[in-house]
Amino acid sequence: MVVLMQGTFAQAHDGDFDCNGICNAMDLLIHLNESGTSCNTDCVADMNCDGVVNSPDLMMFLSFYGEVSCPADYDNDGDVDTDDFSIFVGYYTAGCNMADWNCDGQLSMADILNFPYETSCRPAPAEMAAADQKAIVQWFKAHDSPILIAPNPVQGPVTIASVAGFLDADAILEVIGTDGRVVAVGPADRMELDMHHQPAGVYVVRASLGSWSQTAKLIKVD
Predict the structure, then answer these.
(1) C-alpha span between 97 and 108 (Å, rounded)
(2) Strands 201-209 and 172-176
């Protein structure tokens, strides 16, 4: 048996926490149940491995939602073949969790003997089920966070999400600059932008849906 390197286990799963082959509602439930947990050891939902399950982890999870997990397709070409096995051997020898494709928390002969040759990795629809939408809305409300911004303060890339986006597809997010001009507009469930070239200061993030609106502060630093 090879011991896995600590601090990176969660990253190998791409949101498929229960390792059933797809990032879906069951994985969302696992994430929400671990939310707010401090991790002395690896937490499966601590996707950025910073020792706590919080809003940045939720952001990362949402980026994988609806995708098929094919952990043995290391080169992402849609199938598992000898090229992937060669990569697997390198990971296994190095004791890297990326070789733990069966998600049992350790590297062993089981990973080698059961390596899934000649399998296909088919894409899955990315639509979010109504039950999942309800669970995410409840999470936002429980944490008193109608708008999530991660990271914040920010120097470069930032991800923003609002509870409004999971209630209605027409909800939007706006980022308003220090001079009052709109810097960016996007869907309220998830918006990504790069703040590298924006001046330092306090920006207003506004989520709106019909007559409802909510604001939060985004801090840009040099």
Answers:
(1) 11
(2) antiparallel
Q: Which residue has the tokens 């896995």?
A: 4
pLDDT 10s digits, 16-71: 777 666 777 778 878 877 877 776 555 777 777 777 888 788 877 877 777 766 76
Cα 212 to Cα 92: distance, rounded to the nearest angstrom = 52
pLDDT of residue 1: 39
Q: For domain 9-113, is the CATH number 1.10.10.10?
A: no
The b/e string for 154-165 (b: 16+ C-beta within 10 A; e otherwise) is beeebbbbbbbb
Tokens 């840009």 belong to 220
| CB under 8 A, 24+ apart: contacts of 215-218 | 215/147, 216/146, 216/147, 216/149, 217/152, 218/149, 218/152, 218/154, 218/158, 218/160, 218/175
Chain region(s) in the chain for CATH 1.10.1330.10 = 9-113
Task: Enter the DSSP assignment of 113.
Answer: H
The answer to whether the CB of 132 falls within 8 A of the CB of 28 is yes
Rounded to whole angstroms, the Cα distance separating 156 from 149 reads 13
Structure tokens at 135: 């669970």
Q: Which residue has the tokens 């920010």?
A: 154
The third-level CATH classification (topology) of the domain covering 146-220 is Immunoglobulin-like (2.60.40)
